[in-house]
Amino acid sequence: MRTRLLAALASAVVIAAVPACAAERPPAESGGWNDTGEVTYWMWDANQLPAYQECADDFEARNPDIDIAIEQVGWDYYWGRLFAAFVANAAPDVFVDHTSKYGDYTSRGLIDPLDDLIARDGPDLSQFVEGTPDLWVGDDGRRYGLPKDFDAIGLFYNATMARDAGITPEQMQNLTWNPQDGGTYEKVLARLSVDVNGVRGDEPGFDPHHVATYGLGIAYPPGGGSGQTQWSFLSGTLGWSHTEKPLWGTHFNYDDPRFQATIAWWRSLVDKGYMPPLELAVGNKPSQLMQAGRIAVVTEGSWNISTFAKLGGVEMATAPTPIGPRGTRATMTNSLADSIAAASPNKGAAWKWVRYLASPECQSVVAQGGVVVPAVSSVVATAEGAIGAQGLDITPFTRQLHEGTAFPYPAAQHAADVDSIMETAMERVMSGSADPSSFTAANQEVNALFTQG
């Protein structure tokens, strides 16, 4: 049967709070186990839509009594729309979920655990890249998703600018960093920064207030509580971690001197003219600034590699994150998964679709699409090849998973509140209106979330 592709034109959605009564409603009472019918499936990444449309077509050919209706909405509107759908009892049967979000759904009973279904039907969790299945075990010990991909952080840089500055690819592959003087990482960023008079950041007379090209780009907002693409790969090299344990921690560490020293160094790049002020980042994506020649380097996730590979008129290259004082690199890694809404009337069909989404059959299609690296180990090489064919090397990103220098996204309850508190605190520091020591008070506010009744 033909899949209905719903082209969703996103509009602003007021984020409504999910009623507390939802947490009291057992999934078995709010949904139904039908093995046939239509399964609605929501996702946010337009770049992956063609691959998942092909997966849906293949799935329907194997299951002619199930229709898959895919709806794609951009990230900026996706989560508000999803919460509104839960409130209206109109949530999709299956949706792409994120580590930072699913704790809010498990605490309210809005998504179903999959443990019994996996025990009955598979798959064998050993088929996935090591560590990715762990991200989808909630703080209640139950599993809420099957990993579908994995990611890492690395450097995208303008190869022409680097070459003109006398910086070699070998230098870019072996950068070092420390929070005292920034190591060779800061030296490269200084060299790549050029003011309106053509003076470089490491030359006498450089004007940090009138910069034509900044060495390093900054994304807005500047990292919130996770700093996934912005600073976590730096603080991680100091042995700092967001919470007292890798996943589902209840005590955050933003008062740690190592974290505050990392952000102090990062903020100093703005003062030195090596990184733009926040106001330049507002409304301008790093890829746009890169294409406009305003920045030379940006730290971003591997999921954006196809975006940077397609930038017209720019010769791009990739490099791994810098080596820190302890002699190793660090990168945050995450894995998306598909969750089943507890209120779905077609859970049997939804479970068949979720299993297929995480299967080697579907993920080989995703791998060939060359956008992300699937979490199914057997197709990782295919994805690396497909991405490399676009002109950018993904191994500076994936090497850290092979070398054991990756750490997981800090899944925690109250994630939205943590991010809200830290986003405000981070913006104040990065705009120069507060000192990094102000994170100590913000940390107290964050930890209070876990001690209140």
What is the structural class?
A: alpha/beta
CATH topology of the largest domain: D-Maltodextrin-Binding Protein, domain 2
β content, as a range? 5-15%
Shape: globular
Distance N terminus to C terminus? Answer: 51 Å
- Nearest-integer average pLDDT: 92
CATH architectural name of the largest domain:
3-Layer(aba) Sandwich
Spans of at least 5 consecutive residues whose pLDDT stays below 50 are: 1-29
Gyration radius, rounded: 22 Å
CATH homologous superfamily label of the largest domain: Periplasmic binding protein-like II
**Helix tally?**
19
Q: What composes the largest sheet?
A: 5 strands, mixed
Strand order of the largest sheet: 1-3-2-4-12
Keywords: Signal, Transport
Signal peptide: 1-22
Main location: other
Pfam family, one: SBP_bac_8
List keywords for this structure.
2 domains; 453 residues; Sugar ABC transporter substrate-binding protein; disordered N terminus; 14 strands; D-Maltodextrin-Binding Protein, domain 2; alpha/beta; signal; 5-stranded mixed beta sheet
Give a quick summary of the entry:
36% of the residues lie in helices and 13% in strands.
Please write out the topology.
Blueprint: E1 4-7, H1 27-30, E2 37-43, H2 49-62, E3 66-72, H3 75-87, E4 94-97, H4 102-106, H5 115-121, E5 149-150, E6 153-158, H6 159-164, H7 169-173, H8 183-192, E7 194-195, E8 211-216, H9 232-235, H10 257-272, H11 278-281, H12 286-291, E9 295-301, H13 305-309, E10 316-319, E11 331-333, E12 337-340, H14 347-357, H15 360-369, E13 373-374, H16 380-388, H17 395-403, E14 406-408, H18 415-430, H19 439-448
Parallel strand pairs: 1-3, 2-3, 2-4, 8-9, 11-14
Antiparallel strand pairs: 4-12, 5-13, 6-9, 6-10, 7-8
Helix pairs in contact: 2-15, 15-16, 18-19
Keywords: Signal, Transport
Signal peptide: 1-22
Pfam family, one: SBP_bac_8
